[in-house]
Amino acid sequence: MIITPDIHVTAAGESFSINRNKFYIDHFGTKFISQQNETDQLIDCNFNDELVCEEGIWRVKNELDVYQEQHAKVKKARQAEYTARVRPYLEEAEIKKHMGDQAEYNRLMDLAVKEREKIQSEHPWPISPEVA
């Protein structure tokens, strides 16, 4: 256990954070003002701060974490939309090409490209905190 001027230890051996900007974090990421287990980690944070665990160490979520979550969400949404809305054009275009209908192949490929562009405009990438 880390003892600092902000930590009060009772006669029973319980540890409490006097400062409400220090919390004990259990392995699930739950915040406590008192130490519940020997493995609880004491960190500086506000009660409403979201936490991230990296290699077993808790820290406050930062702008880069939020950006990465948003980026992953957009990527997943785009992939789902590509599968549902673009792939059918691509598959039909390949069939038409195989059948020798080059004009229909070109038309369907153009539709696939336009649909892809729509999806990208509907699901724009988030702005990186490094750029903003």
From TrEMBL:
This is Tail fiber assembly protein. It comes from Vibrio zhanjiangensis.
